[in-house]
User: Fold these one by one.
Assistant:
Number 1:
Amino acid sequence: MDKRVLLVVADGCEDIETVAPIDVLTRAGVKLTVASLREGPVAAAYGTRLLPDTTVDKVDLLYDGIVFPGGRRNAELLAANPKVIELARRHNTEGKLVAAICAAPSHVLGEAAGILKGRKATGDPAFNDRLAASGAHVTDELVTVDGHVITGMGPGAALPFALMLVEYLVGRQIADSFASKWHFKRP
């Protein structure tokens, strides 16, 4: 059965934290839908332009997983959007993969959606206080897995984070084969 993932972005998303999961999940055969807050291209923090497939207001499906890239502006915009928070909570309640990296764990999953209470999580160290205030047990790891919730620290964790998403969705063997092929040692 094909796995389907929704990746949600807004202007100011961190370039590598957005593109790495898109690239790696697609290579792994995951059916990826990129949704933004509005029609048209999204301007990432460092100049990458993305053309999303749809907008969040048109999403009413439950996917096998939902992913939130970081970038402070992106995380703030996503956290302020009621539909984004509803989607995060729905996926969490159904036990589907919920993943976020950098500023998104603290802003989107922690403060706005309230789904990190009692869970291990990591994120941008600049927001560890916000992550802890949301009830998360901050790990300071590059990537942290707590059940169906996967969080990543920041740009340097983009590839390990993406590979962990692949491992969760389609298996460790596939994730390890990519890492081996790319001469990348997984943490």
Number 2:
Amino acid sequence: MKLYRFSPIKNEDQLLEAIKYIHFACYELCRKSIGQYLPTAGNVGIFCHYEDEYTLLTKLREQLTEASYNFNQKYYRLIKPIVIPKKDGIPETTYDYLYIRQTDPYRSQVGDVDFVLDHSKYIELKNKIVAGSDIKGARAFSRPDLDMVELYNPDVDVLGYITTETMAERVRVK
């Protein structure tokens, strides 16, 4: 039995297939939770489940992204952005940044996408969630260094995050 949908990813073609899957699944997750498709921050994350997979994808990422001297950087700028065309009402999206998450066999998700809202709409959404409004599949993501809303569904193997444009820029150290 294969526990993870794409892992272990072994080449660039499989990586791109996983990114397409994450893209469409995250947009559907967003629509089901929020009631609409939000714009993305332009970054996509791939979650590794095996040590060899992480090593291989880190090397592949080095070929696909600009070099960085910031050892703590999470998102790397793609040399050639990944464009996913519009399909079934889901808007065309360009991903400019790639994140390869370290191995975590206890988290089965394929990856994640960050969506953005303007500051006032984000605060309104987060306040509703914190006040206990039942927004199915959305919860406050509480980490001291990140202010985000997490989109999730136990039957879907991706995660989405909603943040403000400011926050989206902050996680991409240049």
Number 3:
Amino acid sequence: MQRHPTQPGVLERMVMVLRQQEQWPAVQALLLEARNRYGLWPDGSDLLLGQSLVEQGQMEGARAYLETACLEEGASWAHHFLGKVLRSCGELEAAIEQQQLASEALPGFLWAPYEAAELLWQLGRPVEALLEAKEAERRSGPADHALIEALLEQLQPAQALLAVERCLEQGDQAGAERALRQGLRAHPQEAQLLARAGELLRESEPDLGDGRLDGIERELDALESLLDALEQQG
């Protein structure tokens, strides 16, 4: 590189070696020197510089390069790293979108759906998070990934919610009630399961919950009766 800095392919090979060795400060320095001194900026340089900055924790500096890289052909990896940047900036919805784009373009890459799952969980969307986490698990194959297993453990209540929703989609009210009962047994304090039980009750009794005291009392009595009945059925 020092002898023939402008020789075609030399810069690319040098960057590849440094990248394989995960020498990210050296990748950054080399790319910037090549651009500023020799006017070299081969295809993929925005992605490489953006990634090197992300790996060094320099998220704000990486953003502009990765946004540019996302406009280029074959931007799958750029979406993943931009998702990381957006997450660090608190732009969670945009980060999910970027990780899902990366996941679609990189069907064998497990960390894009994993990060999407974490973000969805953080935003209080457990069923969507569970689907992404299961996709990450599927892509991991037989390998044991502690991070994925830990996330799936956190999302166990969402498994019950997913079962309820699938039963309702199929018109299986009894199946939905069974899934809800099982979920409440396993996770009796889970707020979203309790909320879903209340929603199902209001759907079956639309006159309840109208703000009147007697309506609220009837709703509470009906909910207690429903839980008692489910317990007796078990």
Number 4:
Amino acid sequence: MFFNSIWSAPLLFKGGSDKIDIINSWSCKDRSGVYAICDQYDSQVLYVGKAENTSCDISNRLKDHLNGLGNKGIGDLVGHKQAFIVRWVESQNPALTESIVIAALLPLFNQRSQWYGGDRVATEAYIREFERLGVGSYELALDKLHHFIYPEKLADQDTPLWERTNPSNYNRDSYRER
């Protein structure tokens, strides 16, 4: 897993042995942005979340998750005393940043894959944020953007070409009008 230098250093949390107040030393209090909770080997992103300073900060959201009160999958692992690697990054638009990180890293326990880019953020703004986060190449950014803005096109990609059907256009009566 690769995170560039704008992300925090990898922070270790040992479920069952670390006290939740250790998060206070992670410098994420009173900050809005996105956090990624990875497995103890830092090889799989388990969950990505956002914290908007208007409702709560990154440290409060992490405390919820690592107390077992947030995401159910993370809560189960905390209950089994698993260790986690946590990273966070500040963002002016946490909803957009979270959508980008979810699209790029495909976390195991994120249930929603809805695009939260607002009113379809301009491609340049999306690419700029994708590159700032360092979660992939320019080509990957365009590919992920396409998949999240046009999810209906994804369904056909797994279907062999000869089995695909064209949507019917019921407003036209004859072949010539199509």
